[in-house]
Amino acid sequence: MPLLLRFLLSATVLAGSCIMPPARAATPPAAASAPAATPPVPLLWKVTGKGDAQMYLLGSFHLLRPTDYPLAPEAEQAFEASRRTVFELSSNDMNAPALAGKLVQAAVRTDGSNLRDDLDAPTWTRLQAWTNANGTPLAQLQNMRPWFVGLTVSIAQMQKLGLDPQLGLDQHFMQRAATAGKPVIGLEDVDTQVALLAGMSAAEQQQMVAEALQQAEKGDAETRALHEAWRRGDDGLLWNRMAGEMKAAYPQLYRRINTERNDAWLPRLEPYLRAGQGGTLVVVGALHLLGSDGVVEKLRAKGYKVERLGARR
After folding, report:
1. Which of 27, 29, 250, 304 has CA atoms 20 to 30 A from the CA of 124?
2. How far apart are CA 172 and CA 159, in angstroms?
3. What is the pLDDT of residues 92-101, one digit of tens each?
4. pLDDT for 35-70, tens place per residue?
5. Helix 146-160 and helix 202-217: axis angle, to 10°?
């Protein structure tokens, strides 16, 4: 599975990045004109803490379609049962004007090199073809790092499939929390998420661009498959395609974008499992909840009772 897709299902800031077309108001899911489909089966787990404390862990797909709403009752009930909501980023960080500037600042070259220096000949030829077909001036990308270019391609292709960052699960519950007056808490800041990309090796960045372009040529079959697996609540397929393959092929990168972040989140989440905390809804990229390195299993290993809600149909 392309590295960029793993990043897009792992880091919120990327899905809402400045690479998007000019921002527009999101169509509220309840008012979406498209016919309603069967609600997605949620990747949802309940963690029982001390006393009245309970935590709901919900795996997000950061770009969704209008037909992915309404959500399953279990997901909305988890929100209603929670005093607060927790995301990878707070709503202030997600909506901050400085977000776009930080992403661009990290991507712009300052050493006099150019994009062609970092790409092999077949990838450069593919990129030329993609920019011509999509009306994107290649000159605008020449001064950018490969990870930014790969992100540009992947998000543009996802939007062609009707996937919209303004309709992502994170945005949905951030809006719900704002309306209900519930606190919105971030596990990370923007700098931490941008550093995930800026810290990639030259080889990893080259691979990201090559895979993004190859997937575009194949009609984005991987994106379609992952979105459908998320809708089915198929944690097994998502683990194998998102994390299992990456752990085997790119162990250092997997550790950086998944394991280390999960480990850093645990001490920030556990206080909400103390007596008197009531309910907490945690919405993070689905990658972070799956497998032996996921938050679900890490909390279970600490002795908490963890159960899946809204099991796969």
Report:
1. 250
2. 18
3. 777 766 777 8
4. 456 899 999 999 999 999 999 999 999 889 999 999
5. 20
Which pTM does this prediction carry?
Answer: 0.89
Query: Phi and psi at residue 308, in whole multiples of 5°?
Result: -80, 135
Amino acid identity of residue 32, one-letter, is: A
DSSP-derived 3-state class of residue 150: helix
Quick check: bond before 183 cis, omega within 30?
Answer: no
Q: Which residues pair with 46 in a beta bridge?
A: 56, 307
Element (H, E) at 260: helix 260-269
Give the CA angle between residues 235, 38, 25 to the nearest 5°.
Answer: 95
3-state secondary structure of 51: coil
The C-alpha atoms of residue 141 and residue 108 are separated, in whole angstroms, by: 9
Task: With beta carbons less than 8 A apart as the criterion, state whether 2 and 210 touch.
Answer: no
The answer to whether the CB of 58 falls within 8 A of the CB of 230 is no
What is the secondary structure of 11-29 as a DSSP string?
-HHHHT-TTSSSP-PPPPG
- Residue 252: count of CB within 10 angstroms of its CB: 9
Give the orientation angle of helix 98-107 with respect to helix 190-198, to 10 degrees: 20
Among 148, 146, 126, 121, CA closest to 207 = 146
- Answer for the pair 186, 126: CB distance below 8 angstroms, yes or no: no
Of 234, 213, 196, which is closest to residue 88 (Cα–Cα)?
196
Facing residues of 47 across strands? 55, 306
Phi, psi of 241 (to 5 degrees): -85, -30
Of 302, 279, 214, 303, nearest in space to 56 by CA? 279
